[in-house]
Amino acid sequence: MVRAAVLPAVGAPLEVTEIELPEPGPGRVRVRLAAAGVCHSDLSLSNGTMRVPVPAVLGHEGAGTVVSVGEGVTHVVPGDDVVLNWAPSCGACPACALGEVWLCANALTGSGDVHARRRDDGTDLHPGLNVAAFAQETVVAASCVLPLPGGVPLIDAALLGCAVLTGYGAVHHAAKVRPGETVAVFGAGGVGLATLQSARIAGAARIIAVDVSPEKEHLARQAGATDFLLASDTTPREIRGLTDKQGVDVAVECVGRAVSIRAAWDSTRRGGRTTVVGIGGKDQQVTFNALEIFHWGRTLSGCVYGNSNPAEDLPVLAEHVRAGRLDLGALVTERIGLEDIPGAFENMVGGRGGRALVVF
Questions:
Q1: pTM
Q2: What kind and span of H or E run contains 229?
Q3: Rounded CA gap, 103 and 93, in Å?
Q4: How far is CA 100 from CA 93, 166, 239, 252, in A?
Q5: Which residues contact 253 (CB under 8 A, 6 or more apart)?
Q6: Which of 354, 117, 113, 91 has its CA nearest to residue 216?
Q7: Which of 19, 50, 344, 356 has the fewest CB atoms within 10 Å around its CB?
Q8: Is the CB of residue 345 less than 8 Å from the CB of residue 215?
Q9: Where are the strands (E) in the chain, listed by range?
Q10: Strand, coil or helix: what is 227?
């Protein structure tokens, strides 16, 4: 039997219980998890900010080892180490045809499937965001499995499945940070820390981290921040003071709150780029007047999964890890068990720590 953290209903506490997984059918793969990151999106799914069929096994950022494969699966074999890809592209929808695989219209269709059953009462369970990584083992579509390149520790590789792809992609694909540019990163959680490291890798000349928690300064500077500011009403003014009164070339918002999105916009120079990574609720309304949009000439853009193509970006990230440019372990501030996930959610709400990693 397999232990898993189950969300019985939206807004309900997670329940660690035993589940029954089917053997992998055609085009499916069974994976034994080594680790799973606790992402803010999991919290958003549990509290209803984002929709998820329930009851469900949450968790979408994970890595592990292939146990068995179904008919037709050829790109991995039992014993292979893999990273889970929670948003596989279908290759056929209009977005995929344009090469914008991160916007695939069918990426999350698997979340509505029956993934497993509770052992105690036989209740059908759905795989939250396709991969159900908050479990000792999972069965996923073959497209949700990417071979892990060599030289990357398996446990830390879980972070490649979401936080690092998102942060790296926000810098390199969405904002397209160039060497010598100035960058501000709002939010120094798991994704924010990955964004800071990625800005450093991109050659940013000045990297300003902004967070509500003073305890995040050490983590932010370790990730590459040259400056650290506590979030306040005066943050945009302070950022302009650090950049010859101009503002940064690029601001990346990793929180998903109206106030921080607006602050990121206000911190960007005239003609600069503001990229929003954070996922906010419908109640988070951001307003701009028509004159300021014209006057500042800034670009404001959303960013889904780092605008990444995981199959192409994973080998690039692995090379950064092997070369010592990307430190996955530095993103992790606690290693926990399945029972500790609610505490990790509380830390997120309280703005504490970086990434919590469930280690099996």
A1: 0.96
A2: strand 227-230
A3: 9
A4: 10, 15, 33, 20
A5: 186, 187, 260, 261, 264, 274, 275, 276, 277, 278
A6: 354
A7: 50
A8: no
A9: 2-7, 15-20, 28-38, 56-57, 61-69, 81-84, 116-118, 124-127, 137-141, 145-147, 182-186, 206-211, 227-230, 248-253, 268-276, 299-302, 332-336, 355-359
A10: strand
What's the chain's length in residues? 360
Helix (H) or strand (E) holding 148: none
Amino acid at 314: L
DSSP 72: T
* Site of tokens 């090469």: 99
Alpha-carbon torsion (135, 141, 144, 150), positive or negative = positive
β pairing state of 145-147 and 182-186:
unpaired
Sheet of 227-230: strand order equals: 227-230, 206-211, 182-186, 248-253, 268-276, 299-302
For the record, the structure tokens of 58 come out as 């949450």
**Residues pairing with 37 in the sheet:** 61, 357
Residue 311, phi then psi, degrees to nearest 5: -65, -35
CB atoms within 10 A of CB 91: 11
Q: What is the pLDDT of residues 191-225, one digit of tens each?
A: 999 999 999 999 999 999 999 999 999 999 999 99
Residues 85, 75: Cα–Cα separation, whole Å: 14
Query: 187 to each of 177, 224, 230, 243, 277, how far by Cα in Å?
Result: 18, 14, 10, 19, 10
How far does CA 117 lie from the centroid of its chain?
27
Q: What is the CB neighbour count within 10 angstroms for residue 280?
A: 18
Closest alpha carbon to 42 in 133, 104, 107, 106? 133
Q: 3-class SS at 223?
A: helix
For the chain, report the end-to-end CA distance as a whole number of angstroms: 14
Q: Which residue has the tokens 């950064």?
A: 320
DSSP code of 12? S
Residues 285-313 have pLDDT tens digits of 999 999 999 999 999 999 999 999 999 99
Residues whose CB is less than 8 angstroms from the CB of residue 99 and which lie 6 or more positions away in sequence, other chains included: none
